[in-house]
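Thread: quick sanity check before group meeting

JM: Hey all, I'm pulling together slides for Thursday and realized we never actually wrote out the predicted structure for the chain we discussed last week. Dropping the sequence here so it's in one place. If anyone has concerns about the input, flag it before I start.
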Amino acid sequence: MGHGSDGLWFRIAQPAIQQGFLPDTISSGMDIDSILLPRANMITTMSKLLNMGMSVDQIIERVTANPARVIRRPDLGTLSEGAIADIAVLRIQEGRFGFLDSGHARLDGSRRLDCVLSVRNGAVVWDSEGLSVTDWIKAGPYTNFK
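JM (edit): ok, ran it. Output follows.
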């Protein structure tokens, strides 16, 4: 399932998920028309599916291992020794959230995924909360300015 501009309709996806018909893979499906759809990105697409009844484990499998299998890349989509270290550290936020589908219909949800750290090929590329850096008390003198 690729979200994209026409790829996710709650009136179709919700009943399918409730009946156990889950997507094999999940992607953001970003295309030129998707830019006009508020937050039609990967993490929001995952959040929409979470609020429609898929489990976190089901979602993670469909954004990692399953797509890697489909494109015949066993070196991707896994956390195993020797594999490429592409990792997203996610947090589930509880609250009241609204999500839009391709038809601009709203789904009210109580959970939203948030990416707090991303590692690409073994290097931290996103760290919204400083999880990968030393606490300021333990850091010592400020000599690491860039």
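AS: nice. The domain at 10-127 is CATH 2.30.40 (Urease, subunit C; domain 1). Residues 15 and 138 are 52 Å apart (CA to CA).
JM: adding both to the slides.
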